[in-house]
Inverse folding.
C-alpha cells in the first residue's frame, strides 16, 4: 500500500486540471480499511512553483512518470471536456535531441543540469514563445513519481557574470590609471626635491 497519483484530468465542475492522490489505510492489525484520496488543482501547484524567484525569464515545469508536462506556464485544459482524456506535451517526443535526453533522465528519476540550445522555432522550450538557449535543472519528486525542473534562459545566467566581469575590468583600468598617475606624481616630486636639495648643497 503506497500513495498513487492519478494522471491529469479535467474537473467536471470547474473545467480546471486536477490530479488525485490516493493511499490505502489499515488498522493496527494490518487489515485494509479503505482508501483516503484528495484532489489537487494543478493550478495550485503551478502558483506555488511560480512563487519561486527564478528571474524575469525563469519558470518551473513538472513532468509525470511518462514524460508528460503536468505543470508549465499557461497550461490549461484547452477545451478538453471532463469526460475526455487530457493530452499534454510529452518532452520525450520533443524535436530537440538534448531535451529528449533530459526528459528520459527525468522519467528515470535522474537529477542534473543541462544547457538546451534550440536549433529552430519548433524546438523552443515548453513555456517559451521563441527558441532561446536555456539551462534546465531537474530533480525527482519520489513520493509522486514525478520530476520537477527549473528553466532559466542562458542569458539570465550568463549576463550578470559578463556584467560583473566588465565592471571588474573597468575598475582595474581605473586603478591602473590612478596608479600610473600616482607613480608619475611621486617621480616628479622626487625629481623636484632632488634638484632643490642639490641646489641647496651647491650654495
Amino acid at each position: 500500500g503506497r500513495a498513487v497519483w492519478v494522471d491529469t484530468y479535467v474537473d467536471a465542475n470547474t473545467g480546471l486540471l486536477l490530479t488525485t492522490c490516493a493511499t490505502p489505510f489499515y488498522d493496527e492489525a494490518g487489515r485494509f480499511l479503505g482508501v483516503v484520496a484528495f484532489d489537487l488543482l494543478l493550478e495550485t501547484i503551478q502558483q506555488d512553483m511560480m512563487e519561486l524567484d527564478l528571474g524575469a525569464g525563469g519558470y518551473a515545469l513538472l513532468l509525470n512518470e511518462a514524460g508528460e508536462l503536468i505543470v508549465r506556464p499557461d497550461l490549461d485544459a484547452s477545451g478538453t471536456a471532463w469526460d475526455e482524456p487530457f493530452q499534454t506535451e510529452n518532452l520525450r517526443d520533443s524535436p530537440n535531441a538534448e531535451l529528449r535526453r533530459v526528459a528520459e533522465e527525468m522519467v528515470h528519476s535522474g537529477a542534473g543540469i543541462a544547457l538546451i540550445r534550440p536549433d529552430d522555432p519548433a524546438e523552443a522550450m515548453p513555456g517559451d514563445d521563441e527558441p532561446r538557449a536555456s539551462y534546465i535543472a531537474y530533480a525527482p519528486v519520489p513520493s509522486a513519481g514525478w520530476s520537477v525542473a527549473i528553466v532559466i534562459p542562458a542569458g539570465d545566467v550568463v549576463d550578470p557574470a559578463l556584467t560583473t566581469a566588465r565592471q571588474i575590468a573597468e575598475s582595474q583600468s581605473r586603478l591602473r590609471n590612478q596608479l600610473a598617475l600616482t607613480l608619475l606624481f611621486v617621480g616628479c616630486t622626487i625629481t623636484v626635491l632632488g634638484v632643490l636639495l642639490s641646489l641647496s648643497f651647491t650654495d
